[in-house]
Amino acid sequence: MRPTHSSCKMLGVLAFTGLSLGSVPAFGQVGLGNPLPLSAETIPCPMSLPAGDIDGETMVCGQIEVPENWDDPGDRTLLITYAIAKARNEAPFADPILYFEGGPGISALEEIEWLDGNTSRLRQTRDIIFFDQRGIRYSSALECPPEVNSTVNEIVFPEGFDLEALDSTISNITPDSDEDALLEAAEILGPGDDALNCAPYFEEQGIDLSQYSSYSNALDAIALMNALNYPSYNLYGISYGSNHTMEVMRYYDENDSVNFPVIRSVVIDGVVGTWVDWLAVLVAFPNVILDAFEQCEADDACLASYPNIRQRAIDLVEMIAADPLTVGESTTITIDDLRGILRRYAFRNEARVYFPRLIDELERGETELYLRLQDETLPIVSDADLPELSTPFEPIAVEANDIADQMRVLADEVENLAAQSRRLSEAYDRGVPLPQFFADEFANSAEQLPGAVQQQVNLFLVNMRTTSGDREQLLQIVTVFSPSERNLLLSLLSLMDDDDIAELYSILADPLYSERFVSLFSIIQTVIHCNDRVFDLRKTFETLRANDAPQLIPGGAGAVDFGFGARCAAYGLSANPSEPISNSSRFPVLVSNGSLDSNTPAIWGETVFEGLENAQMVTFPSSAHGATRDTNCARDITNAFFMYPEEELNLSCVDDLRPVFVLPDDPLPE
After folding, report:
1. How is the chain split into domains, by residue range?
2. DSSP 8-state code for residue 262
3. Which is it for the CA torsion 333, 336, 339, 345, positive or negative?
4. Using one digit for the tens of pLDDT, what is the confidence trace for 363-382?
């Protein structure tokens, strides 16, 4: 929807079902007061609704009009679209939950069916308000038309330029890379087609890109709360949504004499703030690996069997990085080998339980466990695994038999398996090569993914354009798909040799491939990051090198987005340094982390927690990004906090999430 222009500078009439505007302050200089919408109205819901919801009854949608520039309101305004998912209870609590979506750039309204499922427990007793942030699909989308953005800008290399050296620089990025060489590469390669094509277009349209920031998003959210006029609100932000939520908190703190809408409680999960070095997110990988050893040391039996195992793991990694470990006459383990094993299993809870024993055995020159993990002959029970296959038809039979044997043959599963079987048969009859069939299935599956997960696939495909084939990366990205599709893709991967993998990468690297199914958020995401964060590539690499185990940080092409600063410059955007929020004692806060979160490392949440005066923090073991929706335990704790935010939480169920480690004398499964 395009931005609208309005001369209206006072709050319009609201016609919300069951709500009245009440008394609100007069609109004034926003930097000194309470941001109010210029107008507001209910509208038919523009998106598909969750099953059972009725437009205008159980799901009420509307729009508020806000200035593009809150600090200097002018003629240009934006429309912010929201949806109220009415509580299932006939006598709900009066204070709703205002949900802040992630990305930045993901449409909460487009994802409302998925989000409603993840918040169904909360919706039993409270209304939940979803909204698209400014510049996103249903809120004056920051769109660059295809006819503008389709131009391919040629890269002009200086005469005599060493292309091989450039390729080596950008294809082998590690914590030890030369930042100056990467900055030079960014200058030569340029900011990319999106920025070169779309920055002039936005300027011609009169769009002020500097106003698409977390600061502006925060004021929009406050204006929305003012418009809806509930007696109080509970805020719930996951991933970038936590960033957005914290900027609302910051604005409240910096204007503490203003009569804002009442905030009763706040949950932030998968925490990332404007002060975070977003480019250094790869520190999450070694942190997730080392978390297995931290969990071991928190367990009495494991600690007794493997004392000081975290530091021992760090020491072994450092030793092998300096000099490969040779065991016997036939086994040599390089840091690439060890890192590959640890990364392959780092996010699989049923495999991490072997990590302490693996380190202990390697220290003593024993390789049985290592070799069995390497060749995948160690049975690891998981719904992501299938037996070794010899033809592409076997996953259908194996999974169908397994479901039948366990009396779990549901209609949707049978239909899905039958559809897979038909596609396999047709592909086999036509002689479709395995890499092409995998690519087709990968695309078909990705179309069904929610936007937050689909974005991970998009980033994976972007990186494919500049990297060589890596089976481990494929195994990792496949884990985000639904179980039945994941099982099929894993089975197909097991049938492919190295040449097949290389061919598959060439298919995935084609830009036209990703355009088939991936909704791109790159422009709005880039703009918000550029307005929010200071990018200093040298500091990024200092952060990577300062990690306890930098040797475990994955490298290669795309490991660090070294050209991000160039894109910010092309859009004409920059940011001032920011600090974590520190004075939010007026309302209680729950800080949630997942110990296996590779998107927003737990340390980011811990940093925020240290500065809050009225907060509780939970790091959920064995949980990934968005931990509050990952397990029944986390969902129960989140619900309890919203019910009684001032009370100390009962965290007893968290202990049940901790892994039970394999000890030295435990027999390995055959």
Report:
1. 300-374, 394-520
2. P
3. negative
4. 999 999 999 988 878 766 44
